Amino acid sequence: RKQLTVQPARFPPVQVIIGSDTAIKFQGRDIPFGRLDVANRVQVRYGLESRTASRVSVSAAATLDKTAAKVLLATRDPGAVTGTVLDIERFPGELPHITLRDDDSQDTVTLNISTESVVLIDGAPSTVNRDLLDTEVTAIFHPDSLELIELDSQASDGYNKPIRGVIHRFVAKNLPGNLTILTRDGTIRTFSRTTDTVVRRNGRQVSVNEVRLGDVVRANTRIVNASGDAAPVLEVLSLSSPPLAPIHGTITGITNAGQGSMRATITTNKLDIIDILVDADTQVV
């Protein structure tokens, strides 16, 4: 027999049995158990005593909450520049400084490299050296300090502008149009993630199961334009976790979220309703 673990929004996880008579439906059509994947959103009907599911309905995808989207788009975006490496300077006792010329504006910017900076040469972790001179790169940096966050030598192909925004909708299965990005200007763009798509978080390759709604999409995300009206294919999906955002309001409910965690419902000063998870690592001050 097969088992399915489902995480309800406000209750502990539930394990149900998938039997030969269990109907598994996606958009009204029968699909096999093997089509289910981690992060699928489902509705399950099951017997309380037997724990056997009679029906599993698979939703098309989870979508980023409108309130969360507003908060995320209001946070400050990291600086990003795609262009040519003009110079690499090294001073005694200091880490290197790298100067780039932006392809669009033709302006130059000098970035400070720190021990936390991630440098990717042809997709592999590396260090800054003079072999990068005259190379086309994408650099992501802190606008205030000009500290380099991530540098990627596999820059865009010149035909596709950098994509910056947050994950708006995500389907774990390899289906056309299985991922949408809410861009900084509020546009929702659709893409296809395939088995060949490289997913990186903070410069390090991760499993597709680590993609989360609201993840920040970095400017060194790369796409391949598809033919006809098909959605562009993601070659590299470069992510970082969303920044912390303040919430001002009143706690209007607290429920048990299981595994030692609690879920707090907050009504903000703007009358939006937000659920947050409070666990052992949450600081209450």
Automatic annotation (TrEMBL):
Protein name (Swiss-Prot/TrEMBL): DUF5666 domain-containing protein
Origin species: marine metagenome
